[in-house]
Amino acid sequence: GAGVSQSPSNKVTEKGKDVELRCDPISGHTALYWYRQRLGQGLEFLIYFQGNSAPDKSGLPSDRFSAERTGESVSTLTIQRTQQEDSAVYLCASSLQGLMQYFGPGTRLTVL
Amino acid sequence: AQSVTQLGSHVSVSEGALVLLRCNYSSSVPPYLFWYVQYPNQGLQLLLKYTSAATLVKGINGFEAEFKKSETSFHLTKPSAHMSDAAEYFCAVSEEFNKFYFGSGTKLNVKP
Questions:
Q1: Distances (CA, A) of B98 to A32, A59, B26, B111
Q2: Tell me, what DSSP letter sits at residue A3?
Q3: pLDDT band at A98 (very low <50, low <70, confident <90, very high)
Q4: Which of A104, B31, B57, B90 could lock onto A6 through a cystine, CB 3.0 to 4.6 A?
Q5: pLDDT digits (tens, 9 = 90+) for A3-32
Q6: Is A80 exposed, middle or buried (0-12, 13-18, 19+ CB in 10 A)?
């Protein structure tokens, strides 16, 4: 595709349910990043992939959060037992050499 | 640890007036610095980046930013605001491209 895509664009779930968010990076981009953007706040780094390995998981807020990446392609961010404080826009970005991050449109997650 | 501070969550200027959006960072090593723009209902786009070359960096849409090491600042400016500049602007810092830290954002309003 021409850019980074994310699905779903919107997700409403009930507290305690698990959710999976998907990111399709730009083809050939080796680096992939996940961020969380709470209402009225800046972007909060969650995790970074170089290829399919994640050398830095320090941004994941709790063990309910996990992410994986298949090769240098799709990544999924999974949130288990969702809580209301998980409500946010989850952004994915990819890059070829790190300097230029291309962002997807985000997934707006609402936990009721 | 790195951090980014953007002074002023909302800035309002008249069309044709100078735009100045402030960003200060903390980093233990010379960082890479970025400004991103987020238009309503769109994803983040890179405006400009500093990567240890010239301290005055020119970006898209007439924006520029100056890296001042002594002040640990990377303020964004544009000589003459246009209505189309109304958006939210984010400053970001990175040391090794494996993790990016974003400020909380500044919403720019341009009055006719």
A1: 9, 11, 17, 38
A2: S
A3: low
A4: A104
A5: 999 999 999 999 999 999 999 999 989 999
A6: middle
